Amino acid sequence: MLTLSESGPLSPPQLGSRHWPGLIHHYAQWLPVTDATPVVSLCEGNTPLIAAPAIAKRMGKPCEVYLKYDGLNPTGSFKDRGMTMAVSKAKEAGASAIICASTGNTSAAAAAYAAQGNMKAYVVIPDGYVAKGKLAQTLMYGAEIIAIKDNFDKALAMVRQLTEKYPVALVNSVNRYRLEGQKTAAFEVVDSLGDAPDWLCIPVGNAGNITAYWMGFCHYYQHKKATRRPRMMGFEAEGSAAIVRNQVIEHPETIATAIRIGNPASWVRAKASYQASHGTIDSVTDDEILDAYRLLARSCGVFCEPASAASVAGLLKYRDQVPAHARIVCVLTGNGLKDPETAILHSHAQIQTGVEPDLKSIVKAMGMD
Ligand code: AN7
């Protein structure tokens, strides 16, 4: 019997017509895979594009704003797109173990795909700076977690050195297959809207995702699946804005721990991407990130993690430059459930505890007495 992880990209498992087979099977013709590629999939991709009229209203002119909610991927972040490719290709090359450095989401995805692909995963993380939900997932998926007394940039440098000497496949975004998988998010945006948007707003950490989206938009444009390409508007957190400041940040800081990165791995390619698109990479403060984080939840019903809210914080910062009637997509890279501690600390809301279990007390707590 053919199982999902044994089937090649050209022969997805035969299930009902509404079954989404994962992005490698769906976009096989656009990806560097063959029928010999052992596809390791958790049915990632096909995430919703959600209209956000409450954010469009804040632009102060007629326009459309959509949220590409990639927090609805199987492990709760866009990293699944790259990881299905990286792990499948590592398996094809005969690897039995993978390793990555991570601020949390890459490690969760690597661990999950390693589990599905029957491989061993090692993850190196900055001790004390990974959100609780991400740690919980990575532990559950069974990865070996190594927390170092330094930041993400150091962890990446270490795993790069390590994989030169030891038989472990590197699955950080310096692995070219990661960005190949991630570019499918741009395909989905075009497939949903019928064309490319005018602007794409996106958080920037290692700057891999902005690079991958641009690749995706360019491929579709070249093959006439889109008539245009968007302006790429990337946003770093102010305390780790290496690209904006044009210098490595030795001690990056931000509440958005996912993008607490001071030496982005895809720096050069990301710069080329935003420049070719006539876009920009700018920074947003932690306060702006938290305002957008709350706005998304309260006014749109979409709970993303703090790093993801940088895309909307950036759009709000650039609201005056939004052309009337523009179509804008903000990428929400990760699910809010990843980071319950930040949510509870910064929701600006409170639980009414210790309420007596009688109608009078509950009605009073509701403010209806
Ligand atoms: C939610 O998991 O780098 O600019 O190790 O988790 O492509 O790096 C995460 C990055 C944005 C930035 N949003 O994307 C990791 C890691 C979320 C993220 C980014 C990350 P890139």
Give keywords.
15 helices; globular; disordered N terminus; binds ligand AN7; alpha/beta; 369 residues; 6-stranded mixed β-sheet; 14% strand
**Distance separating the two termini:** 64 Å
Q: Which structural class should the secondary elements be placed in?
A: alpha/beta
What is the number of helices?
Answer: 15
Mean pLDDT comes to: 96
> Which small-molecule ligands are present, each listed once?
ligand AN7
Number of strands: 10
Which bin fits the share of residues in helices? 25-40%
What does the overall shape look like? globular
- The largest beta-sheet arranges its strands as 1-2-10-7-8-9
How are the SSEs ordered, and which strands pair?
Layout: H1 23-26, E1 49-51, H2 53-57, E2 64-69, H3 79-92, E3 97-101, H4 105-116, E4 120-126, H5 132-141, E5 144-148, H6 152-165, E6 169-170, H7 176-182, H8 184-193, E7 199-203, H9 208-222, E8 231-237, H10 242-245, H11 267-276, E9 280-284, H12 286-300, H13 306-317, E10 327-332, H14 340-346, H15 359-365
Helix pairs in contact: 3-4, 3-7, 4-5, 7-9, 8-9, 9-11, 12-13
The chain binds ligand AN7.
Polypeptide structure, described:
It is a single chain. The protein has 369 residues and is of the alpha/beta class. The chain is built from 15 helices and ten strands. It has helices at residues 23-26, 53-57, 79-92, 105-116, 132-141, 152-165, 176-182, 184-193, 208-222, 242-245, 267-276, 286-300, 306-317, 340-346, 359-365; strands spanning 49-51, 64-69, 97-101, 120-126, 144-148, 169-170, 199-203, 231-237, 280-284, 327-332. Strands 1-2-10-7-8-9 form a six-stranded mixed beta sheet, with helices on both faces. A four-stranded parallel beta sheet has the order 5-4-3-6. Helix 8 (184-193) crosses helix 9. The N and C termini lie far apart (64 Å).
